[in-house]
Amino acid sequence: MQIIIKCIYMNTLTFNHRDELIRIKVEDIVCFLADGNYTTVILSSKKELLLSINLLHVQKIIEESLIDGFQSDLFVRLGRSSIIRKAYIFSIQTLKGKLILKVPKKDFYYEIKASKDALRKLKESVQNRHKHIFPKFQLRDLQTRKIYILKLGDNRFGRKSTMTKCDQMIDNGDNQISRLHFNILVCNVVEHYEYEIIDLGSSNGTFLNGIKLPLQESQKIESGSIIRVGKTEFIVEPIDVDKTEVP
C-alpha cells in the first residue's frame, strides 16, 4: 500500500491512494497527528482523514514535495506526535504542555498536547521569525505605473473624491471606479502576511484574475494576481526595496 503526496499549483497537496485521488488546499490542513503506523489529518472543516503511513513518512514526503517553488516552512514538526500548520498557531502554553491551533475566520480551535521542551522550542522559533517579517506586496497600476503600498490592516481603494475618504485614492480619470470600491486586508498570521481582497459594494464590481468577486466575500490574492476595477488594472507584486520607499 502506497500513498504519494506531492505539491501542485503552489498551494495544494494531492493524496494519491490506489483508485482514489484527493486534493487538499494547504490552508485547509490544520495538522497531522501520529496514530501508531497511521497518520490522522485534521482539516479546517473539522473533517479527519486517516493515512496508512506513519508521521515520519508524512514529514519526509511533505519536505520533498514543498521544495519546488513552494514555501518549505509552512509546516513544523512538534515532538514525535504531530506536524502542524504554523500559520494556525493561536496559543502556546508551555507550562500546561498545550498548543492551540485556530483556523482564520472560523470558530474552530484545535488543542494538541506536547512536551514542554517541544513547545518552548516552537515558541522561540515563532518569536525569532516574527521579528523579521513585514508586508512585502504592493499594487501597481498597469497603465499609469503608479505604485500603491499595502499597509497592515485595511487598504480601502476608491475613486478620488472629497465626499468619501479612502486609504488609497485612485486619480486616473476612470469614472467607472466607485468612490469606495474595494478593500485589501493585510493580516499578520504569525510567521507571514496574508492578503485578501473584498468588493465594498461597488457599482461595476471588482474582478480578480478575470473573475468577478461575489459581494462582501473575500478572496486571497498572491503575487502576480490581476485586479480590475472599471477600466483600470492593477498587478500585485513584491515590493522592490531598491526602488520603492517602504513606510
Name the descriptors.
247 residues, mainly beta, OB fold (Dihydrolipoamide Acetyltransferase, E2P), Tumour Suppressor Smad4, 2 domains, six-stranded antiparallel β-sheet, five-stranded antiparallel β-sheet, 22 strands, disordered N terminus, disordered C terminus
What can you tell me about this protein's structure?
The structure is a single chain. This protein is mostly beta strands and 247 residues long. The protein has two domains: 3-130, LytTr DNA-binding domain (OB fold (Dihydrolipoamide Acetyltransferase, E2P), Beta Barrel); 137-238, Tumour Suppressor Smad4 (Sandwich). It has two helices and 22 strands. The strands form five sheets. The protein has a six-stranded antiparallel β-sheet, with no helix packed on it. It has a five-stranded antiparallel β-sheet with strand order 6-5-4-8-7, sandwiched between helices. Strand 21 and strand 22 form a beta hairpin. Mean pLDDT is 82; it is low at 1-10, 67-72 and 241-247.
The total number of structural domains is: 2
SS-based class? mainly beta
Broad CATH class of the largest domain: Mainly Beta
CATH superfamily heading of the largest domain = LytTr DNA-binding domain
Task: Give the biggest sheet.
Answer: 6 strands, antiparallel
Radius of gyration: 21 Å
Topology order in helix (H) and strand (E) letters: EEEEEEHEEEEEHEEEEEEEEEEE
Runs in which pLDDT lies below 50 for 5 or more consecutive residues are 1-10, 67-72, 241-247
Report the end-to-end length measured between terminal Cα atoms.
54 Å
- Total DSSP E strands: 22
Q: What gross morphology would you assign?
A: elongated
